[in-house]
Amino acid sequence: MSERDLRRIEVLSDVRAGRRTVVAAAAVLAISERQAFRLLARYEADGGGGLIHKARGRTSNRSHNEGIRKYAVELVKTRYADFGPTLATEVLLDKHQLRIGKETLRRWMMAEGLWLSRTQRRTFHQPRLRRESYGELIQIDGSDHRWFEQRGEPCTLLVFIDDATSKLMQLRFVPSESTDSYFEALNGYLTTHGCPTAFYSDKHTVFRVNRPDAKGGSGMTQFGRALAELNIEILCANSSQAKGRVERANRTLQDRLVKELRMAGICDMTAGNSFLPQFAEEFNNKFSIPAVRTENMHRRLNVQASRLADILCHREQRHVSQQLSLAYDRRQIILERSEMADKLTGQYVEVYDFSDRPLEVRWKGHSLPYRVFSKDQRVSHTAIVENKRLSHALAVVKAQQDIKHQPKIQTNSDKGGYKKRPRQVYGPDYKEIATAPAVEMTA
């Protein structure tokens, strides 16, 4: 007997003994009064065994034949192994005229190991131990947030944190996560701390080429190329939990740093970047922990400032055409004629695109003079913009829309340099004609 049957026997025994009415028994058992009278009659006639459901132990009237079950499972196993229970049910009905309930087929598939329940599909992320040495692994990430609340525009905070000590190594406010932004933050990090063993990041396109079959490029990003020249490794996490150290630091900073900026009255990125070193020092004194090993894995930066600037910039190779021109960033760059430039037809030159000074075109270390033929630089329609850079892209679009853009259309005469001159009269009587008085016409 089940617990419910035993409870019914106990209550109905009280009814027979006169300690409880049938109406009270129905309320206790949560059944109707008519059902209570029927159960009481069965109890008096057959005893406790009469309260057991008559279908208990019997095969359900809605159950499927064992042969149908084996046939359906075999079809799913051999033909529709990749189908889920819902789709497999529809296919069995359409192609094999097998009318089987979705949940019934789900139970059959689970019993045969062809389907995992929601509980069985759960994945668990085991906690990763910290690295043992300071500077061995630096986690990096950007946190897009309204850091200045309603006092300023939202921006992104780039966070560099040491995995062994949870020490904030570098903080910087930037408009969005871009290669130039990370170059600026990396420059400050290398100047202050030196070269770590490796950086640990997500799969953002700044760090990783997400299309290995891309026709252009060298197979690595600009940020990856710069780290390779500095002999620093870049590793990408497969999930957010893998780089949980910096993710948790972002949530903490979105609470503590916002309050600190509010109390300091800071409203823009420039003032915020000046405030961040002081904040990071106080934060590290309070929350950082000592590393397991005392050694510092940072290596000395043996690169001159000029060489470091050449590394931390956009560098791409471009083909020089017969007209000594090359294309870069929707612009046509024309090399000035010289003895060296005349030999570069059909060769590849390197373009250095700096964030703080004009673009340079170099060949084997020699800078080549050039002029730029540029079309109107507008944000093109249907441009692909990542979610992390959407706010910054919209700000750029708005700034462009505020500028009245009215391109002047030149005629063929203007392009040829034609200038309109007044009409001239030639001949011996030129002066007399020019100075003759007007003759009044009369009728």
From TrEMBL:
SUPFAM superfamilies for the chain: Homeodomain-like, Ribonuclease H-like
A Pfam family recorded for this sequence: HTH_29
One Gene Ontology MF term: nucleic acid binding
Gene Ontology BP annotations: DNA integration
Disordered: region residues: 404-424
Top-rank lineage group of the source organism: Bacteria
Keywords: Plasmid
Coiled coil start-end: none
Record domain Integrase catalytic: where: 123-305
The protein's name in its UniProt record: Integrase catalytic region
Species assigned in the record: Granulicella tundricola (strain ATCC BAA-1859 / DSM 23138 / MP5ACTX9)
